[in-house]
Amino acid sequence: MGIFSTKTKEETQQQTQIQLLIKEQDQNITTAINWLKQAFKELERKPLTLYDINLVLRFLQGSVQEINKNIEIRKQIQKTRLIKNTK
Q1: Annotated domain spans of the chain
Q2: For residues 32 and 66, is the Cβ–Cβ distance under 8 A?
Q3: What distance in Å separates the CA atoms of residue 12 and residue 22, rounded to the nearest whole number?
């Protein structure tokens, strides 16, 4: 920290933690999207059994839930940052 820094060490640490949390959510979303891509590739395989289809559908559902969860976490982070910045 320089002499003219207006941020406290605690504020800087919080900002770093927020950035790491956002990066983690982005990585989780990217991973879930890759799962979706893989699930669609599996659907292109032939012949598919009902077991295969059921497995892929559960995989798709889990991926979408993971994406939605991480998007909600990002929204909460942004909302918290907005509230904090207006104080």
Answers
A1: 35-87
A2: yes
A3: 15
